[in-house]
TrEMBL record:
GO terms for molecular function: flavin adenine dinucleotide binding; L-pipecolate oxidase activity; sarcosine oxidase activity. The lineage of its organism: Eukaryota, Metazoa, Spiralia, Lophotrochozoa, Mollusca. PANTHER family: PEROXISOMAL SARCOSINE OXIDASE (PTHR10961:SF46). This is sarcosine oxidasee (formaldehyde-forming). Belongs to the MSOX/MTOX family. Its cofactor is FAD. Its EC number is 1.5.3.1. Coiled coil: none annotated.
């Protein structure tokens, strides 16, 4: 099968292609998923190139910012709970190798109204996997956390494994350790074309490269790059607000006193984030009107967190790429097995990044993945995608 691209290679480009070094793997996209993948490959001794379209560091994608929440229990999604066990271990490995503290344990408080399927599923998951936790009623949670206010008939559970990941520290740790293992990182190079074959050719805004395999972890830009490879998947790019709130009395919501927090949408003790927002073009995300999101969160804060000022002190944005079923996409391209795709992380990606990187590296080097990939295969979209 031939791939049609926007670019016709000149005779000079064709003549010099044979003299170019061939990488074992090129990873496109140096967010947390791509950086984790490249790190795993370099650690295995593979000649690896990591490409990033923006100069680093930047805040245009999905991996920047101060914190992300993490926990071991994943409701009724058993395959994520299994993966999270190894993710915790691999985060510890990165901390040792980088010399940075990335994870801080705070516990995670989840709550729901009577019959709430997510809360009940979380409790069953915690019990099934023997993860330390505490189920509380209204009186118990008010005694432990008097600074919050929720209905008396709610069920509350604290997953004691929960906490925060220092996002910026995690990303730079992967990139620096990748380089220390011999990897090559080039930022400020946008990928313009990918030409499949037994050897994959990659044309950027600055150079041409070749590799035996290519891994695409391009976040929101999957909606633009994958169609060039004759693949259109049901993905949405959302602009997400991350809001920071000032305490009325300092220290009440500090990490040593208050857990990360989850009620349908993730909320942590440093920032409160509604995991939804306007659908955007990743190249013009700042044009979106998301004032309704901020208004909704201000009302939520005033109602449930009375010891916080209702007006956010700081507002940041990032982009989430949602798959139609809100599960990850980790698979080979349907036509070219040496092009591997990691996309549609749907709010799950950061905490799972160490395992995602491990699995994508395995796929790029023709190894059997460490996990059952059935939930993450592209073929599940065969009825509503261009494969």
């Amino acid at each position: 099968m031939e791939l049609l691209t926007d670019h016709v290679l000149s005779k000079d480009e064709i003549d010099t292609r044979g003299s170019m070094d061939i990488y074992d793997v090129i990873v496109v996209g140096a967010g947390i998923e791509g950086s984790s993948t490249a790190y795993q490959l370099a650690k295995q001794g593979k000649k690896t190139l990591l490409l990033e379209q923006f100069p680093l560091p930047h805040s245009r994608g999905s991996s920047h910012g101060q914190t992300r929440i993490t926990r071991k229990a994943y409701g009724e999604l058993e395959y994520y709970t299994v993966m999270m066990k190894e993710a915790f271990s691999l985060w510890e490995t990165l901390e040792r190798e980088s010399g940075r503290k990335i994870f801080r344990e705070t516990g995670m408080l989840t709550m729901g109204a009577p019959g709430d399927t997510f809360t009940m599923g979380t409790i069953r998951c915690l019990q099934r996997h023997g993860i330390p936790h505490q189920v509380m009623d209204y009186q118990g949670v008010k005694q432990a956390y008097p600074m919050i206010e929720f209905p008396r008939n709610y069920t509350f559970v604290v997953d004691k494994s929960g906490g925060i990941l220092r996002a910026d520290k995690a990303l730079i740790s992967y990139q620096e350790t990748f380089r220390r293992f011999g990897g090559e990182l080039r930022d400020g190079e946008k990928v313009l074309d990918i030409i499949p074959g037994d050897t994959v050719r990659v044309r950027t805004s600055s150079h041409h490269y070749r590799a035996h395999s290519v891994v695409l972890t391009v976040g929101a830009w999957a909606t633009k790059l994958l169609p060039k490879l004759q693949l259109t998947l049901p993905l949405k790019v959302l602009r997400i607000n991350v809001l920071y709130w000032r305490e009325r009395v300092p220290g009440g919501y500090g990490a040593d006193r208050f857990p990360v927090f989850l009620q349908e949408n993730a909320v942590d003790n440093y920032a409160i984030c509604l995991h939804w927002g306007p659908e955007v073009d990743p190249d013009s995300r700042d044009k979106a009107d998301d004032s309704w999101v901020i208004d909704k969160m201000k009302r939520y804060i005033a109602r449930h967190f009375p010891e916080l000022e209702a007006e956010p002190a700081i507002a940041e944005t990032c982009m989430y790429t949602w798959s139609e079923d809100e599960d990850l996409i980790l698979d080979h391209h349907p036509s070219w097995r040496n092009i591997i795709i990691g996309a549609g992380f749907s709010g799950h990606g950061f905490k799972l990044a160490p395992v995602v990187g491990k699995v994508l590296a395995e796929m790029a080097t023709n190894k059997a993945p460490s996990y059952d990939m059935t939930p993450f295969k592209i073929q599940r979209f065969r009825h509503n995608a261009k494969l």
